[in-house]
Amino acid sequence: MNDPLNKYILHLADNALILAQRNGEWCGHGPILEQDIAITNISLDLLGQARNFYQYAASLQGNDATEDSLAYLRIENEYRNGLLVEQPNIDWAQTILRQYFFSTYQYLLYEKLQAADDAQLAAIAAKALKEVSYHLRWSREWVIRLGDGTAESHRRMIQAVDALWRYTGELFIPADYENQVGVDVSLIKDAWTEQVNVVMAEAGISLPEKTYMQTGGKQGIHTEHLGYILAELQYVQRAYPNSSW
User: Fold this and answer.
1) Which superfamily does 4-239 belong to?
2) Which tens digits make up the pLDDT trace of 81-121?
3) Which residue stretches of the chain are H helix?
């Protein structure tokens, strides 16, 4: 697992898997049926992306590695997802803002990843880009709707910014394996910031001018939330090893 390409693929897979798990918590609990279905479909899209990356990582690792073993049998500090995607839902506003921040980043990342030297990575990114385009459009519309809606929805969006903004800086600080094989994420920061500023202005939300940015997820140092996610995600596989449907 020390190969830079393998670490990078797992980073991409873990981002998608953990956010899929978070979004999946809304299944049956969405504010209205249409949006319950929408967030669940986004979760499934992300899960599909994760599977493609895990399958590729498993093929590189060998030693009987599979997409399932990579998803279900690694421990917390072996996951390389960013801290943003593991943050709790809290409410609809925080879920929406987390998705918007990440989808804007993911869209810009996958755009560049389509031109990667690694043909498999480029193919996965190209396939996923259509899905991410929808995720971005959907979450952007909700950010504006909530921010420019009622006094209560506006208040909740401000709370969401206060909770999540500190985890966005890590997206654009390249880990060593990103520098070696992936997209230089520092180069998409300006485009991300510009897009986010436009949408937040339309939503009537001010972003913090100075915030200490939390980091560590890309290196396997996580918030306490990831452990709870994995406990639920991995329970069946660990309780009944090697089970199959």
Assistant:
1) Ferritin, core subunit, four-helix bundle (1.20.1260.10)
2) 999 999 999 999 999 999 999 999 999 999 999 999 999 99
3) 4-24, 33-61, 67-72, 92-113, 119-147, 151-164, 176-181, 189-203, 224-233, 235-239
Exposure string (b/e) for 207-217, b if CB count within 10 Å is 16 or more?
A: eeeeeeebbeb
Q: How many CB atoms lie within 10 A of CB 235?
A: 11
pTM given for the model: 0.95
Length of the chain in terms of residues written: 245
pLDDT digits (tens, 9 = 90+) for 151-181: 999 999 999 999 999 999 999 999 999 989 8
Per the structure block, which two tokens stand in for 54? 């895990």
In the DSSP assignment, the letter for residue 217 is: G
What residues contact residue 235 under an 8 Å CB cut-off, 6+ apart?
Answer: none
Instruction: Give the chain's radius of gyration (CA, Å).
Output: 17
Burial group, residue 197, by CB count within 10 angstroms (0-12, 13-18, 19+): exposed
In this structure, is the dihedral angle defined by the CA atoms of residues 14, 216, 136 and 39, taken in order, positive or negative?
A: positive
| CA 66/CA 64 separation, integer angstroms | 6
Rounded to an integer, the average pLDDT of 15-36 is: 90
For residue 122, the SS3 value is helix
